[in-house]
Structure formats: structure tokens, C-alpha cells
Amino acid sequence: MKKIIYYNLLLLSFTGLNSCNDFLKEEPRSQISVNQFYITPADATSAVNNLYRTGFPSFYNAGSAYMGPTIMYGGYISGLFDNQYKGQEKFVQDSQNLAIDPVVNNGNLLSVWQNCYVAIGRSNNAIKYIPTTPGLTPAEINRLTAEAKFFRALNYFHLVKLFGGVPLVSEPYESLENLYIEKSPEATIYNFIVDDLKFSIEQGGLADIPMAKNNFRISKGSASALLADVYLNMSGFPLNAGKYAEAVTVAKSLINNPAYALIQNGATPEQSAYNVLRTSDNQDEYLYVVEYDATISNGGWRPTYCFPNEAATWGEFTYSICDNAYRPVTQILTAYDKLNDLRAQEKQYFHTKYTFTKGNRKGETVNFVDVTPYFWFEPEALYTTNKSQKDQVHYRLAEMYLIAAEAIAQASGVNAEAADYLATIKARASMNKTKAQITTELLALSKDQFIKEVWTEKLRELIFENKIWNDITRTRMYPTAVNGVFTFVPFVGAQNPWGKTFAAKNLLLPFPNDEMQRNPKLVQNTGY
Q1: How far are the Cα atoms of 186, 229, 417, 429, 456 from residue 248, in angstroms, in the given order?
Q2: Among 39, 79, 314, 454, which has the highest number of CB atoms less than 10 A from its own CB?
Q3: What's the CATH number of domain 1-195+504-528, 2.60.40.10, 1.20.1290.10, 1.25.40.390, 1.25.60.10?
């Protein structure tokens, strides 16, 4: 049972600006100044609760039938995911054509930029004023501050990965001074993120249990998962900061903690780990999730992304539109051993056909033209309620195994520990090999081969979890198929499936034009 969907979301906006004129005694009804708000423990809790739906978490909202939510932008930019409605969805088309432009695509870019900075601003307010809120115990102050710092770090991490160096705002705006801030170097942003997460983990008093068992509040596992990912990214491009050992330490703190556990396969295909992942919100593998509920905050159109456009005319579903809005293209599907990888079997991660459940066509099976996601298939939403309620998992324990495997190999070469972590994830998906057999095979690989096998496994395991663009930009290697064989090639000079060639400028997005106009100190990313 879900414990919170944040009933007390803060609907009113904050302003930290104090009036210079005493004659204006009445406060605007549409705003609450900070000296009006942080006066009870409920105010502090409400402010933090708001962060669970603001900025990065809101990017999971599937509010459009025609285009995947903001979190899927990276997949579109990679060119490795297609959309049947791309003819009318210009951002998808421009992504495939490597033609993203700060003016033409201002709205899409601004939706990322603005929402992240709104969340950062609200986090800054919370971090400053929670410690002085009357009635809070020291433990409550630490926990709420830790949650606010987690979300500040999460939003800065998303910004720095997509845009590179960005303005670093660490305090609330409470005057008209310093409104215009130049961008900070990426290393500065990353170090700031690390400091926030270290506080959350070491001083926040967060429960060290899966998020679902923590009433769907941020736990120590949530902050640790984010920090492991941050260290892995710091070790790759563009910083090459050598944080692999730190990534291993944090990832292993989760792998070795009995509070967290991988989902195990059941006795039938319907009970596989991957169908449990598709259907269940309460698993010890989940480290950070974005919560949805059919009544309060539903997941939108995501279930319709499991079907081609013509499915809307079948009379089967409660939704009026279907759209293969985020379909992996053939060249990344070659990463799967289709005969022996459980994830690639029918009605696991994908499906290739549908059998009608009612009407004159009941029992008839129709075959799809393309391999299509099954990952978001929700029978109740599709057939009855028209409301998706499946939580979306952003971090889970499987990713920590893969982070540990790569980081160990990068830092120390291929050894038994790295092979064991990678083999654990591969064995769960294997239909014909034991973990011991897989481990032996992995230990025979060179360092380069092993690391690329980790990258490949990460793509296979997390294909619908929006990690692909981040892995491309941090490794500067592009997943592709050569003569039907999956491989990686250098990013600069690689061709995407649409015949366009990547250049160095494509590693970062341009700053939105509106922000360039607003902030005269902001220098546009190179090439735009």
C-alpha cells in the first residue's frame, strides 16, 4: 500500500523579497513570504513534500499521448528511440536530425532548465529555513534538510549532465542583487552535489531501507544510489576525476546491505523479475522511485506507449490515443541474445503481438511491424480505469551492481569481484547459463572487452530507465550495430540511425534562448 502521495503539496509560491514600503501591509494572496511560512513543523514538511513532485521528478509525468515525458529526451537525442508521432513532435524530429536549436526548441529546453531551477530554489529555501522552524526536533531538522539536499543535488546533476557548466545558486533570492550569475565549471557543480549528498547520507539520519519501506520517502539508499552515479560520472568525461574507487565504495554499501535485495525470478514467465518490475511498486530492489496514484497523481499516457498508433481503433482500450512514443530502434535491440536473454522474450521487456480480449475479434492475434515496449503495460489502466498508477523507478539495486563492476574494472582491471557483480545481473536474465559459467567467461575478457560488456548489460537491463544518453556522454562511445553485431564506436564521427553524424557540440544541449535573453552573463555552449 502506498503511504504518501504528498497531499499537502505546497500550492502557493514563495517569495523571499521583503517590501521596502511599509504602507503595503496586506500580503498578496497568491504568494507567501518566507517569514509567513516556516513557522510550524507542518510548514517545513510541506515544503519538502513539494520537492517530491517538482523539477526532476516531474520529468517522469507522461502528460502527452504523442510524445514521451521530459525524462525521455535523452533517448530521443541519442537517436536510438523513435516516436510514431515525430512528424508533429518537432523536438523528436530535431533530435534525430541533430538539429536542436536554442530558439526553435526553446520551449523544450526551457522546460528542463526552469523546472530544475524552481526545484533548486525551493530546496534552497527549505535548507535555509528548516533549521529555524519552531517546533522541529534536531532529528526532524536533519532528516528534512537531508531530503531537501537530495533533491537539490538531483536537479543539479540532471542540469550538469545535459548542459555542462550552469549557474550555481546555493542560497534563496532575498533581494534584487546578484540576479545574473555566470555559469560555474562542471567540477564546481559536481563537488557541490557531492557535498549535499554526503550530508544526506552521513548527517541526515535517513532510514537505511528501501524507499517503499520508508513510506516512499527518500532513504539513505536513495542518496547513496545517486552518489554512486555521481562518482561514476565524475570519473568519466568531461572531468575524468578518478572517482572510481569512491563509486565502488558507495555501490557496495548497498549491494552488501541485507536491507536491499534484487528481485528473483519466479516459477513462470509471468513471475519473472522483469514482470515483477513492471507490476510491483514495493520491492527491496528499488532505491529511488517517482510515485504515482490513480486518484491523486496518475501516470498519464505511459501505458499507451506499448502499442502502435492503430491500436487506438481496436476498441480494446479506455485511452483514445495510442502511440509507440518511445520505441527502441533495431540497432540497440541487437544488444540482446534473443534466444537466451529472458528480457528479450515475449511479454517481458517487449512484445511483438497482441491478442484481442473482446468484441468480434476476441481471440484473434495481430502482429506488430516493430518490436514494441511491454515494460509499461498496465491492464487495469488500459482496460478499466484510464489511469496509470505504476511508480517509475529511477534507481534500483541492479544498477549499483553494474556501477560497481565497471568502476572496479576501470580502476583495477578485471578481477573476480567485478566479474561476480556483472555475472549476477547477467545470470538473472540468462535462460541457458549459470552464474558460474558466466563468471568464467567474463574473467577471460580483456579490460576493454569487460567494460564494454558492462555498458552493454546496462543498456539491456535499463533500456527503459532513461540512462542511455548519460552513458553516451560520459563514455564518449556510441552504441551501434555493424553488420548486425552490436558494438561501440567513438561518439564524435558516429552516425545515428537517421544518417546524421555526431559532432563534439552535440555532447551538450544549448541553453534555452529565453534564459540567454534573461541572463546577460550566460555564455552559450560552443557550437550553438
Answers
A1: 22, 10, 11, 23, 19
A2: 454
A3: 1.25.40.390
Kindly tell me the burial class for residue 479, based on how many C-beta atoms sit within 10 Å of its own C-beta (0-12, 13-18, 19 or more). buried
Whether residue 435 contacts residue 443, with contact meaning beta carbons closer than 8 Å, is answered with no
The domain ranges of the chain are 1-195+504-528, 292-390
Query: Could you tell me the end-to-end alpha-carbon distance of the chain, in angstroms, rounded to an integer?
Result: 48
DSSP for 272-307, written as a single string: SHHHHHHH-S--TTEEEEE--BTTTB--BTGGGGGS
Write the pLDDT tens digit of every residue in 255-290.
999 999 999 999 999 999 999 999 999 999 999 999
Block residue for cell numbers 557535498? 195
pTM over the 0.90 mark: yes
Cell numbers representing residue 369 in the block: 511491424
pLDDT digits (tens, 9 = 90+) for 388-422: 999 999 999 999 999 999 999 999 999 999 999 99
Please compute Rg for the chain using Cα positions.
23
Nearest residue to 497 via CA among 146, 98, 46: 98
The Cα–Cα gap between 384 and 357 comes to 13
Helix (H, G, I), strand (E, B) or coil at 260: coil
